[in-house]
Each structure stands twice: as structure tokens, then as C-alpha cells.
Design goal:
The complex is a heterodimer of chains A (about 120) and B (about 280). With about 120 residues, chain A is α+β, with helices and mostly antiparallel strands. In chain A, about 35% of the residues lie in helices and about 25% in strands. In chain A, strand 1 and strand 2 form a beta hairpin. The longest helix of chain A has 9 residues. Chain B has one domain: Rossmann fold (3-Layer(aba) Sandwich). Chain B has an eight-stranded mixed beta sheet, sandwiched between helices. In chain B, strand 1 and strand 2 form a beta hairpin. In chain B, helix 5 packs across helix 6. Chain B is globular, with a radius of gyration of 17 Å. Classes of the chains: A alpha+beta (about 120), B alpha/beta (about 280). Chains A and B meet through helix 4, helix 5 and helix 6 of A and helix 5 of B.
Chain lengths: ~120, ~280
């Protein structure tokens, strides 16, 4: 699901413009797997495979693999088309320092949109 | 080739609402039964532009949308700089009635979306004799929080891009990108304080569960129309609300999100035209 994310983000100049003031690390949880997405000045610098014992991060978005699979479809089913749709219906959990997520909300939502099959 | 000019006209009216005079901007097109349109929180009347350019509607309905005070091209009250904007249910209802009275509209249909969709439940109960029908788009009878209230007081709310990103997922992935993003642009440009002030009504001061039962369906029939992608007012919220209102009809719109009239005008007309036909058939 995360394969190619760094490259897709690197090619997206508008995404980098949106995130130019963002340096952060967040976690995408898929079932029990933990993927750390490292952002530097709007660039998706790398995706690191966890789990890590003590590596800090700002926030995590965790969902079962089946939920992420639906989210990643070009036109997801109702309840799976947006992080807030997923958290609202209980398909995903947003945890940690959500202030970072909300401060760069459009940027992070656009990163997640790159996970879509047609992105 | 002649320039494309839409049939919409915009004017200003000076209207008294709860003891204060407001300069109100409104747009309209068409002739026939008045159809008052209420925009969503943090937006303005442009959301209804497609209805005003649809001859299947404007040949029978006078479609009128006004910007609430503080929104779009309507003014806030004089002295706004020394107050915090907070929309209350009383003011919202009073503004809608005052607008209908000022324009001398004869038993208009009222149609509101989102916070406007919630208000129509109260209007149908309190002023059912004044409206021939009420259409709640993405409307329910109580707040259904899908985000944390505490963010209303966070500085991050003070940005248009945040307001737009907060609601972006409420538009359906099936809606055309052009119209989804036009809808979000209204949130970008509308002023975050305005959106925040509307949330006072939408999250705190719009508990209308007790209102539904008192609606007189012989005076004002209620239609509740909701997109299946709406997680702010879910289809379940809508069907639950409709059950509390005598004679109310719930219509769930396939592949539609929270902003039907502006995010997917072509799809929306498939749903709204039969409703407008039904209302036209009710007579006076």
C-alpha cells in the first residue's frame, strides 16, 4: 500500500508547497504493522517499517488492512473515502498529537490520497 | 460568439432581524412558487447557482438564495469588530422569516442544506403555515459530532484552508472534481470566524428532536434528502429524523455527499426535480 509513496510525493510540487512548513513523523498502522512516514519541509523523505521500541512520532492513523484497501480504491464505499469518515464510523483510529495532523490537514489528507490505486 | 451570461440576478435588501438592520445580499432566478435556499455553514448563496440556471426549475419556481448576515456579500451588524459571531437557532429562524416577509413571498418552499437542513425542521414546526413545504438537504434534528468541539477554539481554525480540509471528505468521490473543489473554495474564502460562529448553531444550539412531532403535515410537508457519503448527517440520522416528523419523507441519494446542489448538480436534479414536481402538485 505504501510502495511508491515517496516517489509519488517527490513528483508532486503542489504537495510540497502545501507542506513547506511541515516537518513531522506520523504512523500509518495496517493491522499490527506500523509504518513511520517521515516528512521534512513538505517532502515525504522516507517510509520506515516498524515496529520501533522508542522511536517518537506525532500521531498515528490505524485501521484494519481491509479498511485501508477500501480507502485506497479510486472511489471508496461510503464511510471509507476520508480519514474523518473512517474515524466517524469506527473504521480507523486517529491517536497521538492530532494538533500536528490538523495544523497541516490538507497536506496530510493529500498524502493519504496518494495511497489510492489511481494516484 | 456572444458572452455566456447566467440568468441569475443579485440585489441587496435592508432587512430588520431581531431589532437590528442588516444589508442582505440575495440572488434569484425564475418565476413561480418562491423557493428560498439556505446555504451551509461557512459558505454563501453561490452554492445554489446550478438550480438557478436550470430551466426545468426556474420555469416553475422563483429560486431565491440569500447570504446570512456575516456571510458572502451580506454585512455583519454595525459594530461587528467588538463582538464574537455566534449563530443561534433563534436568530437563524428569525432571519429566514424576516427575509421571506421583506420580499413578501407567498407561502414559499424553504430548502436548506446542512445547518440549513437542520433549521427547516424547526421552521416546519414553528412556522408550518408560512411554508408550503420544507426540504432539508443533509438535515437531521440534532447535532451528530464527528469532530472534537475543542478545535473550535484552536488557532488552527482561523485558516480558510483548514475549514476546507475539515469538510473536504464530506463531498462524494463520485462528484465531479471541478464542482467538489468549487464547493471547498467557498470554505476557503468565507472567513474562518464565520464558519466557527455557525458551528455554535450546528453543534450546540440546534437540538430539535422535540420539534418534529409538532409538525402539521397538512400545512407543511417535510422532505429530508441525504447523500450516502455524508458522515456529518448520515443516512441513518436522516431516516431516524424523518420517523419523528408526521408525513416526512426521507430520500437517500446514491453516490452523493454533503453538498448535493453544488458538488454534483447533474445528479442532484435527478432527485430534486421529482420532489419539486410533488410540491407543485400539492397546489396552494
Amino acid at each position: 500500500m505504501l510502495a511508491g509513496l515517496v516517489e509519488k510525493a517527490r513528483r508532486n510540487a503542489n504537495l510540497q508547497r502545501l507542506g513547506r512548513n511541515c516537518t513531522a513523523e506520523f504512523v500509518i498502522g495496517i493491522d499490527d504493522a506500523r509504518h513511520h512516514v517521515v516528512i521534512r519541509d513538505g517532502l515525504v523523505a522516507e517510509v520506515l517499517e516498524g515496529p520501533f521500541k522508542m522511536r517518537p512520532y506525532s500521531f498515528s492513523i490505524t485501521a484494519p488492512a481491509a479498511s485501508w484497501a477500501e480507502f485506497c480504491k479510486p472511489k471508496p464505499a461510503p464511510g471509507f473515502n476520508d480519514v474523518f469518515a473512517m474515524t466517524s464510523y469506527g473504521h480507523a483510529l486517529l491517536e497521538g498529537d492530532s494538533a500536528v495532523f490538523l495544523a497541516h490537514l490538507r497536506f496530510f489528507k493529500d498524502i493519504l490520497a496518494l495511497l489510492r490505486e489511481d494516484a | 460568439m456572444p458572452v455566456a451570461i447566467e440568468p441569475i440576478t443579485g440585489r441587496y435588501a435592508h432587512i430588520d432581524i431581531m431589532g437590528e438592520t442588516y444589508r442582505i445580499y440575495f440572488e434569484e432566478a425564475g418565476e413561480g412558487t418562491p423557493l428560498i435556499c439556505l446555504h451551509t455553514a461557512g459558505a454563501h448563496s453561490s452554492q445554489f447557482r446550478h438550480l438557478m440556471c436550470d430551466e426545468a426549475i426556474t420555469s416553475r419556481y422563483r429560486v431565491i438564495a440569500f447570504d446570512l448576515p456575516w456571510h458572502g456579500k451580506s454585512n455583519p451588524p454595525v459594530g461587528w469588530q467588538d463582538m464574537e459571531y455566534k449563530l443561534t437557532a433563534d436568530f437563524y429562524a428569525a432571519a429566514t422569516i424576516a427575509f421571506a416577509d421583506a420580499l413578501e413571498l407567498d407561502r414559499p418552499v424553504v430548502m436548506g442544506c446542512s445547518m440549513g437542513g437542520r433549521l427547516v425542521v424547526r421552521l416546519a414546526r414553528e412556522h408550518g403555515q408560512r411554508f408550503r413545504a420544507a426540504i432539508g438537504l443533509e438535515g437531521s434534528n440534532r447535532p451528530s459530532p464527528w469532530w472534537d468541539n475543542s478545535w473550535l477554539d484552536n488557532d488552527v481554525f482561523a485558516r480558510g484552508d483548514f475549514c476546507a480540509a475539515l469538510v473536504s471528505g464530506l463531498a462524494s468521490p463520485h462528484s465531479p472534481a471541478e464542482f467538489r473543489h468549487e464547493t471547498l473554495w467557498h470554505y476557503h474564502q468565507s472567513g474562518s470566524d464565520v464558519f466557527k460562529g455557525d458551528m455554535h448553531f450546528f453543534r450546540t444550539d440546534s437540538q430539535f428532536e422535540a420539534d418534529g412531532a409538532a409538525v402539521d403535515p397538512s400545512a407543511c410537508k417535510v422532505f429530508l434528502m441525504t447523500g450516502e457519503y455524508d458522515y456529518s448527517c448520515t443516512p441513518a440520522d436522516t431516516e431516524r429524523t424523518a420517523k419523528t416528523i408526521p408525513g416526512a419523507e426521507a430520500i437517500i441519494m446514491r453516490e452523493m455527499g454533503h453538498f448535493p446542489m453544488s458538488e454534483h448538480p447533474e445528479r442532484f436534479r435527478e432527485y430534486i426535480l421529482p420532489v419539486l414536481d410533488q410540491i407543485a402538485g400539492m397546489g396552494d
